[in-house]
Write a structure and sequence with these properties.
The protein is an alpha/beta fold and 610 residues long. The chain folds into four domains: 9-201, Rossmann fold (3-Layer(aba) Sandwich), CATH 3.40.50; 206-277; 288-510, P-loop containing nucleotide triphosphate hydrolases (Rossmann fold), CATH 3.40.50.300; 516-608, Helicase, Ruva Protein, domain 3 (Orthogonal Bundle). Helix content is 44%, strand content 18%. The strands form seven sheets. The chain has a six-stranded mixed beta sheet with strand order 5-4-6-9-1-10, sandwiched between helices. A five-stranded parallel beta sheet has the order 12-13-16-11-19, with helices on both faces. A three-stranded mixed beta sheet has the order 20-21-22. The longest helix has 23 residues, at 562-584. The chain is elongated, with a radius of gyration of 34 Å.
Length: 610
């Protein structure tokens, strides 16, 4: 490992300009840990204050004073220096107080700033941490705040470098202001100030995480005896799994793994636990036998869709086994795009899979995408950006996933969403992560994502009219081919989002029309369920064969709306007139009735012996 290889760009920039600038502003990722090479080949992570003090010490600075709004003044001593020397420096500058710290506030800092900057002798530096908290409003400072930064501005111009050390390099008594954003300090202090250098501190990249990985995995169980290839594989998984995370989080994952006894080769489990905040993994608790017997369970509720059921179960099995890119890149456990006519069981399949996986069909998170057709609807999902109404509330999607990371997320009628909303799905499908309006990273790595759509059933003619693309008279293979072709055309040429379709891969599942034989089964089940509901209320109702035949003919006359259309017809020709007749007959528990005749919207009800 080369001596300079782990010194980050901002640190090199800071050290390079120390002889040239009297003051610095560090902003950005200042609350995170920073990569520091404490010895050649020895890398660790330190808070920003320690990292800056170490850089100042390497440059020849004798002592670094730290000011914090609540704690006041303290000295970050150079390595090996006695604590008495640090206390003596505070005494010399008039900053000593009981306990080695002084009172905090803008006035105290202003009174000390001149003494620190103009002090003679060995060079020293001042770090002003949480500098933004010294101001009520950067654009409208109070008199004391204005005086502090006016004095800082004047001192930045008047400070003169002086030679120090054996090589007689120029030195300032440097002042470093640490803020979250450059705009946290008055513009007139920063903008156009040639004696001040603003240095952004970026979020850690892949290189920083890889530099820390060996040290963080070394204390884990089994790492000391592991072969180099196994260690490298674990380090790669660790680096890939923590993509986009801060070093303070990366370090916390290592601590979590040590506390919970996670071996080094299972570090991906510790990453997952930290991301979603849940120790138990519901995916691992799903019984294999339950999944093996799932096809019969699903077909009881989703009828006439054998191909769709098999394809969906393949996705579920892959999700349960954790097979695929999700373990490394954080992508969702599974993705399914359910397409087909209305009322054929797309939403019902999502509910059934949720019940199969988590024991409760209401555990799924559903979003009706017709509600997200406006241009700025993405803010409802992710939350409003800072400064806008609703910023503190967060987004509907990000909040829901944070609360229930292990879930089936259903996006109904996806084609009705605004293209800006669709763009957000690219991040979910690729990286399994979204950043909310508040800046929080929300992970979808444990979710099963399901989209539903009616795309492909209709198509637009050259004159702009809408016409059927497929019909019930066509075989399923023809329906499937036409629907997939129309979906491809829509994403590529209408939405101009071919990349979304590409992320779906081979997970587009086309549902068939409800055919006559299946429609009969659905009708029979709905009638049986209706009569069973009445029986639970101690009302025995039966249908004469002629009434059942008439009802069947009425309900199955038009299958264009699928199972939902059959349900509507059962309600119109059985439920509504039956409820009316029972009400008029003053039906009471314990009595029996016979539907002797039935016509459209009407029926004849007779009392029957029980």
């Amino acid at each position: 490992m080369e001596p300079k290889s782990q010194v980050t760009r901002w640190q090199r920039d800071f050290e390079r300009f120390l002889p040239l600038k009297s003051q610095f502003v560090l902003s950005g990722n200042v609350r995170d840990l920073q990569v520091v090479e404490v010895q050649p080949g020895v890398v660790t992570a330190q808070p920003l204050n320690q990292c800056v003090a170490a850089a100042l010490n390497r440059a020849g600075c004798a002592n670094t004073i730290l000011f914090q709004p609540l704690a006041g003044f303290s000295v970050v001593s150079a390595p090996g220096e006695a604590g008495g020397a640090a206390a003596g420096l505070l005494q010399e500058l008039g900053l000593a107080a009981e306990g080695g710290q002084g009172r905090a506030g803008a006035e105290l800092l202003a009174s000390a700033l001149d003494r620190i900057v103009r002090r003679q002798g060995e060079p020293i530096a001042l770090i002003v941490d949480f500098a933004a908290r010294l101001l009520t409003r950067p654009t409208d400072p109070t008199a004391a705040e204005h005086h502090l930064f006016t004095q800082a501005l004047v001192l930045s111009q008047q400070a003169a470098p002086r030679p120090a050390g054996t090589d007689r390099r120029p030195f300032f008594n440097t002042v470093i202001w640490i803020v979250e954003k450059e705009g946290d300090l008055p513009d007139w202090f920063i903008v156009g100030n040639p004696r001040l250098r603003h240095i952004p501190v970026p979020r850690p990249d892949n290189r920083a995480r890889r530099a820390l990985a060996p040290a963080l995995l070394k204390p884990l169980s089994g790492a000391a005896q592991a072969a180099p290839d196994s260690l490298k594989k674990a380090q790669d998984e660790f680096v890939d799994g923590t993509e986009g995370m801060l070093l303070v989080d990366v370090n916390a994952i290592s601590v979590l793994a040590r506390v919970e006894g996670v071996p080094f080769d299972k570090i991906a489990d510790a990453v997952r636990r930290y991301k979603v905040g849940v120790t138990e993994d519901p995916w691992l608790q799903i019984g294999r036998e339950k999944i093996k017997n799932a096809e019969a369970f699903i077909r009881q509720r989703v009828k006439g869709q054998p191909d769709a059921v098999v394809h969906m179960l393949d996705i579920v099995k892959r999700a349960v086994m954790g097979v695929g890119g999700g373990r490394r890149g954080g992508r969702p456990r599974g993705v399914a795009f359910l397409a087909g006519p209305t009322g054929v069981g797309k939403t019902e399949l999502a509910k059934t899979v949720t019940s199969l996986l988590f024991g409760d069909e209401s555990a799924y998170i559903r979003f009706d995408m017709s509600e997200f057709s406006a241009e700025h609807a993405d803010q409802r999902l992710l939350g409003a950006p800072p400064g806008y109404i609703g910023y503190d509330a967060g987004g509907e999607l990000t909040n829901a996933i944070r609360e229930k990371p292990f879930s089936v997320v259903l996006f109904d009628e996806i084609e009705k969403a605004h293209p800006r909303v669709l763009d957000k799905f690219l991040q979910i499908l690729d990286d399994g992560v979204l950043t909310s309006g508040r800046g929080d990273r929300v992970y979808f790595s444990e979710a099963l994502i399901v989209f539903t759509s009616n795309l492909g059933i209709y198509k637009m003619t050259e004159s702009g009219e809408r016409e059927l693309n497929v019909s019930q008279q066509e075989p399923y293979e023809a329906v499937k081919q036409k629907v997939e072709s129309e979906i491809e055309r829509h994403f590529k040429f209408v939405l101009n989002r071919p990349e979304i379709l590409n992320r779906m891969g081979e997970n587009i599942i086309v549902f068939d029309f409800i055919r006559e034989d299946i429609a009969g089964e659905i009708f029979q089940q709905m009638v049986v369920n209706t009569l069973a509901d009445l029986k639970s209320q101690e009302l025995e109702v039966s249908l004469a064969s002629e009434a059942m035949t008439s009802l069947r003919a009425l309900c199955l006359a038009d299958l264009s709306n699928g199972g939902r259309g059959i349900r509507n017809q059962v309600e119109a020709h059985l439920l509504n007139p039956l409820a009316r007749a029972l009400f008029d007959a003053d039906a009471a528990p314990g009595r029996s009735y016979l539907v002797s005749g039935l016509q459209a919207g009407q029926l004849s009800l007779e009392s029957a012996a029980r």
